[in-house]
Amino acid sequence: MNANDPQITLYVNGEARSVPAETTVARLVESLELGQRRIAIELNGEVVPRGEHASRSLNDQDRIEIIRAIGGG
Amino acid sequence: MTQQQPLTIAGHSYQSRLLIGTGKYRDMAQAGEAIRASGAEIVTVAIRRTNIGQNADEENLLDVVPPSEFTILPNTAGCYTADDAVRVCRLARELLDGHDLVKLEVLGDPQTLYPDIPATLEAAERLVADGFKVMVYTSDDPIIARRLEEMGCVAVMPLASPIGSGLGIQNRYNLLTILENASVPIIVDAGVGTASDAAVALELGAGGVLLNPPVAAAQEPVLMASAMRKGIEAGREAYLAGRMPMRRFASASSPLEGTFWQGRQ
């Protein structure tokens, strides 16, 4: 990654993050060190199936939710 | 034996009639130990945001209760609208590789945690249409319970008293009316406080009980999990055995003939 690469802003779990343009869902997950976790992804309100993580590119201002299962009743 | 008759939900058979939550335990190890002691085969989980950049090696709940060993029942706890509940269910289905059994709850307010019935009906309709197998938390209104069943919910789960209250079975005649009219399993969801409450629910004919705080918030969760298991089994056997009728006054158990003393007859 180069400082001069164009960047886009994503909202990941509600927090703004700058990432290189052309980042895919899979690349984002990897960069957050969540690659080995059991998670699911929602992009702008729609589920992104696991099989599409590698091919789905992200755009400026995209809202991404990365969710998991936790204890609950 | 009839006691062995399994609980069948959406075509799957379960030996245990206890469904247990995974929240509020001291830690993952205690959750795992208590859940195993309970004998439950269906465990509920909540769906939340992943922590990013912290506790990189924190234990994953689904490692403690692996989907290979348990039926995972994701809930929509904390949802106050049909939209949010549907959204959570879709993410849960993706998280669990297409597993489509969900616990729907759409709440009305934070004080009572009573269900918002119009929103629950709307969410149930949308989820059933989207292929989900819906186990639905509802009030103890028999008409609503019947409506949810007619809509295609695979289990109807009325409360026995408010969520997390531990007040026990406060509505046994409403539950009885729901049970008598149901052809899907009725799971008592919410209100159970201790093992005798679970037994009462099963004695009434409930298909099962879903609980979490009574075990997690007990002084000794693993011991309470074992007690719940026995309460459920005792209640089920008592239901199948058919209890004696109640009467207002006493009826002596020993014969009156053959007494050899002068006394009151």
Structural features:
heterodimer; A: 73 residues; mainly beta; 5-stranded mixed β-sheet; 1 helix; 10% helix; B: 265 residues; alpha/beta; 5-stranded parallel β-sheet; 3-stranded parallel β-sheet
Q: How would you explain this protein's 3D organization?
A:
The complex is a heterodimer of chains A (73) and B (265). With 73 residues, chain A is mainly β. Chain A is 10% helix and 38% strand. A five-stranded mixed β-sheet of chain A has the order 2-1-5-3-4, with no helix packed on it. Chain A is globular, with a radius of gyration of 13 Å. The termini of chain A are far apart. The model of chain A has no long low-confidence stretch (mean pLDDT 92). With 265 residues, chain B is an alpha/beta fold. In chain B, 36% of the residues lie in helices and 16% in strands. Chain B is built from nine helices and ten strands. In chain B, helix 4 links the parallel strand 6 and strand 7. In chain B, helix 1 packs parallel to helix 9 and helix 3 packs parallel to helix 4. The mean pLDDT of chain B is 94. Chains A and B meet through strand 3 and strand 5 of A and strand 4 and helix 3 of B.
